Amino acid sequence: MSSNDLLSAKRNNGETNIEWIKRMIEDEQICSIDHSEFGDPVHVRYGGSGVVTRAQWKKRNKEIILKQIVPYESALAKSENQELAKELKAFHSIKDSLTSEIGRNNVIEFLGVSINKGNFFLVLEYADLGNLRDYLMLNKTLDWERRINIVRQVTCGLYFLHKNEILHRDLHIGNVVIKSDKNSKFDIKVLITDFGVSKVITRQSVSSQAIKGCITFMDPFILNALTATYGEKYNYPSDIYSLGMTMYAISNDKLLADENIPVIELVKKINGIRENPMADSTQSYVDLYTKCMDDDPNNRPTIEYVYDSIHKEEIISGKKWGETIQSQ
């Protein structure tokens, strides 16, 4: 089967999650890595999409990330089945795509799967400099060109996902990681991670007065829809809104907490006024992320438009936003 067949790979009646995974391995949709090949595990974090551990892949002498997704004993719901299939499909698209394809190197590399003591793990490449939120906190003196370099790489990663018909649905500065890379500009490679298996916001989470995920980066249109209907309306413009918020955070050092937020705070967010941009931002940059965060999803640009715009020289060297304000 091709990677595109993953989305049509339905569970058999009574098939548990682990049985589904094993069948995907048998069908050569995903490769299995013996868990005994990993050593020196170090807990990284707990997250909405599972437990994350760093380990040494002894056979290849490299550090990797083990991301626990699905408990062994529970059965996958239909929606969870599809979400797992989407992530695996995305990883296959990365593996099968040409090295020169835009954004291929800005999405986390999938190395395989591993099963240990009834737990299922994705085996992913390790980003030694941590997530973007932590990186920005430790590097608050980054100049404008270095910040734009980060934004451009994030945009490339999202471009790749959208071109492969994959929605991220939870893009924020905690789901972007940084890796040392002497072959990349400014010696870093920026990678998008945690796509596909990001949990759908449920009716239960709304009714319990809290919604999981990084709400600040979420499309207000989605929040309004969720509050009204407990449903979901994620689409490409929703990802574009999150990209705009990510652009805003990178340029402003406005590192927003990734935590559960009470519904009353969501109302303030939905109805609130966005803060002014930093004076050092270029006008073209402010205009771009403002378009991405338009209240009407239909007015937001496509990822192709954002990609073309963010790579223009005026984004770095154009008129400053502060200069524009002062001249008025």
From TrEMBL:
Species source reads Dentiscutata erythropus
Molecular function terms, GO-annotated:
ATP binding; protein serine/threonine kinase activity
Source species, domain of life: Eukaryota
One GO term (biological process) = piecemeal microautophagy of the nucleus
Region forming the signal peptide: none
Record flagged with keyword ATP-binding: yes
Q: What is this protein called?
A: non-specific serine/threonine protein kinase
- State a GO cellular component annotated for this protein: autophagosome
